[in-house]
Write a structure and sequence with these properties.
Length: about 210
Amino acid sequence: MSQHFEVHPENPQARLLKQAAQILHAGGVAAVPTDSSYALVCHLDDKAAAERMRRIRQVDDKHHLTLLCRDLSELAAYARVDNRQYRLLRMGTPGPFTFILEATKEVPRRLSHPSRRTIGLRVPDHRVTQALLEELGQPLLATTLIPPGESDPLNDPQEIRARFEKQLQAVVDAGACLAEPTTVIDLTGDEPVLVRRGRGDPTKLGLADE
């Protein structure tokens, strides 16, 4: 049975976010709002929680999980970033972009892509998510909340509670948000590659909108 935290979208109540953070620290999986859609999140260092999150989504270890970071400096601690990549990251953060980058040793090997040693990272532009990250003091492991067998992410916390209440330990309810996933950009090659067109406009980063 999940705990329900109804928070203000612009000024989230600190005591409620502290309770949600405690659930995450204890190994819980939660649904949280972001600037693209709701996402499933768990503690970065909790292997069992990460595996439960994959089971909820029904994805395997080849599916990139994402680290939600507070800012660009935190992101750089978990990914190898050169000057060219950094310029693109600055243009796309905070915002609805996920960047595929080479993971550093700070990222547990089991969380990165099994053959490529890459990880998805992003800095969300959402006050509730940012406040929760601040309360935790470290990134959250995340994946877009797309139900198994479906293609669209969920954005209604009431629907999320109805469908996933027995699988989640917490739902942070900041009301309905957008229902469009992030734009995914792979920065591991010589040139940026648009992997998925989502809410983020790739032309903002100087990329062609394919």
